[in-house]
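Hello,

Our lab assistant flagged a job as stuck in the queue for most of the afternoon. It eventually completed. Since we weren't sure the result was trustworthy after the delay, we are filing this so someone can double-check. Below is the sequence as submitted and the structure that was eventually returned. Let us know if re-running is recommended.
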Amino acid sequence: MGLLDLFKPAMVKPDKALAGRETYSYSIPATHAVLGTPIQPPFPDGLEVAYFGLGCFWGAERKFWQTPGVYSTAVGYQGGFTPYPTYKETCTGDTGHTEAVMVVFDPKVISYEALLQLFWESHDPTQGMRQGYDVGTQYRSAIYTVDDAQQQLAESTRDAYQASLTDSGYGTITTEIAPAGPFYYAEDYHQQYLEKNPNGYCGIGGTGVSCPIGLGVSKS
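-- returned structure --
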């Protein structure tokens, strides 16, 4: 048993979470530093939104903005209890939030199922409240869904990937799958961090196990 097994963070209870505030304590950029598109709504008609948590959001966001069919991305805090948290507060574990990526995509170019395939293959979803050496509830794996269709696909692809992981000797998927609550944008310097800091820390890596579900590019 290693040190990571001895230290197992637990979710803060709602009544113990930090109080937060009524609005942001910092400004949010209007434009994506790589794609040149808005990172805040309203977005063009026909686009859809998805939310994923797969460890440190710096590397996770880059995975998605590099994907054809993705219109915009942003990093933020989601799944917890504290309204309008800061990065420092989220890192304490006392907000309940995980580091999340908002993905705005064109379903005529890329399907939600294909985004799920990228999600599953880009990290190890069996690690509980950590991702690699990043330990804490803010690094937990999560999918936050915007409707029943996303919820059903998230659950069915989880089950399909679990079978592949089990065959490869991995344990049980611990990914949180739940209806999306508020997404709180992270501070400006976190947005597209690896574009601004090319030698910065990434911190995510997949299992090497393929997810047998991807439909790839959608047909118009």
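-- support follow-up --
The delay was a queue issue, not a problem with the job. The result is valid. Residues 29-196 form a domain with the Peptide Methionine Sulfoxide Reductase; Chain A fold (CATH 3.30.1060.10). The chain is about 25% helix and 20% strand.
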